[in-house]
Automatic annotation (TrEMBL):
The lineage of its organism: Bacteria, Pseudomonadati, Pseudomonadota, Alphaproteobacteria, Rhodobacterales. This is Major facilitator superfamily associated domain-containing protein. One of its GO terms (cellular component) is plasma membrane. GO terms for molecular function: lactose binding; lactose:proton symporter activity. The keyword Cell inner membrane applies.
């Protein structure tokens, strides 16, 4: 397939990914800072974060399914983008903690809904307009890293309010771009799935095995996301080096996506690409258990290209092949709700119990999840041979 930059449809898809990920690239690292600046305690910020993961499960299951049911993926995202921007602006007038919680959860619900539906549109655009999906999605990661670095610098120079206004602008950009998203035209005209059919898909045994494989391999990152920076600080690494290590992981993901990722995933096939993320997780989290502080951290962080990106591409390929196109957003939402929601939250809860006692050995949770995920990939390979699921 050709580069997404060579066609109008590819460039439009790339621009949408970049604008949306420029929201999440600020929301994930800097929204807790905004909440703390508003006046929340550390414990309250933690509670808001935990509840945010919970809303990700609910919104990820229901809103994308609704978009499929209404046969209106682009409009659903546009509404979520507009609501997200308006709710963020409304934060400026909030004076009570319960109201702040509702508003923050509503913002998180918008983000959790846009992601899966946007992936369904991106995959559809790639398939029907003949450009490579992986590089287009890679530009989303570029947008994520750019906004992370840019807003971090702007916050240092001005105030944390920059984060809010940056997200408002990027929400509106994404909302405008999605209205003419090239992935939305080809799903129109198909029979919208009934609620019973969506339920049949989500409860399909093969789809369930796929979701389990994706959930364990992707949620194996939980310990790193929750305690990576804290543990490196305890080991004596400087803030500058920690920042560079995080950037190296994202850079490896981007390089993989925009170069060989798509071709490698196509050669391996969906199941083996998912399995590759499990194998890489065994190496990465097993290595992190030894508390490395020297040069070995760099190749361990470079494995993010495989622990995350290879698994993500495998998941997109599975959904493209196994799930009828009219169920695309519902399938994406169910997978994300489990992998980036429920299972991730449970893994983080386990890490919170283990880390105070075992420190770096807590990465054993990620190692165990990668082993389990790899085993489930083997099972998936036996249960699914490339056929479209009967729903």
């Amino acid at each position: 397939m050709s580069s997404p930059l060579r066609s109008a449809a590819g460039r439009h898809t790339t621009a949408f990914y970049a604008s949306f990920f420029m929201v999440s690239g600020v929301y994930m690292p800097f929204w807790p800072l905004w909440l703390a600046d508003w006046g929340l305690t550390t414990a309250e910020v933690g509670l808001f974060t935990a509840l945010g993961i919970g809303i990700r499960v609910v919104a990820g299951l229901f809103i994308p399914a609704l978009a499929d049911r209404l046969d209106s993926r682009r409009n659903t995202i546009a509404v979520c983008c507009l609501l997200g921007a308006l709710i963020l602006v409304a934060h400026l007038w909030i004076t009570r903690v319960p109201v702040l919680l509702v508003a923050t959860l509503a913002t998180g619900a918008c983000l959790a809904s846009i992601g899966p539906i946007g992936e369904a549109l991106g995959v559809a655009a790639s398939r029907f307009h003949g450009f490579a999906y992986a590089p287009a999605r890679g530009f989303g990661s570029i947008g994520f890293m750019f906004s992370n670095l840019a807003v971090g610098a702007l916050i240092s120079a001005y105030s944390v309010q920059v984060a809010l206004w940056w997200m408002v602008v990027c929400f509106l950009m994404a909302g405008l771009l999605v209205l003419r998203h090239p992935g939305g035209t080809r799903v129109q005209g198909q029979t919208p799935p009934r609620a019973s059919e969506i339920r049949e898909l989500i409860t399909n045994p093969v789809f369930g095995v796929f979701v389990a494989a994706l959930s364990f391999t992707q949620a194996s990152h939980a310990v790193f996301y929750a305690y990576g920076t804290i543990h490196w600080t305890a080991l004596g690494l400087s803030e500058a080096r920690i920042g560079a290590l995080w950037a190296a992981g994202v850079a490896a993901e981007i390089a993989f996506m925009v170069t060989i990722g798509g071709a490698l995933a196509a050669r391996l096939g969906p199941v083996r690409a998912l399995g590759l993320s499990g194998v890489a997780g065994i190496l990465r989290w097993g290595g992190m258990m030894f508390d490395p502080t020297g040069w070995t951290l760099w190749p361990l962080m470079a494995l993010h290209a495989f622990t995350f990106a290879a698994g993500h591409l495998g998941a997109m390929a599975f959904i493209t092949r196994a799930v009828p196109a009219r169920f695309g957003a519902a399938a994406q939402g169910a997978a994300a709700a489990m992998a980036a929601g429920l299972v991730l939250a449970l893994a983080m809860a386990a890490a919170a119990l283990v880390y105070p006692r075992l420190g770096g050995l807590t990465y054993g949770i990620g190692l165990a999840m990668s082993v389990i995920g790899l085993g489930i990939c083997v099972l998936l390979g036996r249960r699914w041979t490339g056929q479209q699921l009967a729903v």
